[in-house]
Specification:
Layout lengths: L8 H6 L2 E7 L2 E7 L2 E4 L5 E5 L13 H10 L6 H8 L6 H10 L5
Antiparallel strand pairs: 1-2, 3-4
């Protein structure tokens, strides 16, 4: 039986080490994943791991989503921009802000 904290050998083969965290000469952590480099025409120039595997970036995408919101013309600044790009768990302050920003249904 394998633990969720210890990936199977098949899983680690599909997700090679992309980066090592080294401190004082000791490998402290490994970051596994997949990557793909595309040529200008969109063809695969280099691939490592399984670039076709599904990705669930969750909160790591929020800064890019915030940038897209700004490029689309929504004028967010300061606190609202920080909240848009931040990771949060539906805390009360977040829910209140979203309620204020939602279009009125009246």
């Amino acid at each position: 039986m394998t633990s969720s904290a210890t990936p199977s050998s098949a899983m680690t083969a599909a997700r090679p080490v992309l980066a090592e965290v080294v401190r004082s000469g000791f490998v402290e952590g490994l970051h596994r994943g997949s990557l793909v480099v595309l040529a200008a025409d969109g063809s695969v120039e280099y691939a490592l791991g399984d670039p076709a595997a599904p990705v669930f970036p969750r909160s790591s995408n929020k800064p890019m989503q915030a940038a897209a919101i700004l490029r689309a013309g929504l004028d967010l600044g300061g606190e609202r921009l920080a909240l848009t790009a931040a990771s949060h768990s539906g805390r009360a302050s977040t829910s209140i802000w979203y309620a204020r920003c939602s279009p009125s249904t009246d």
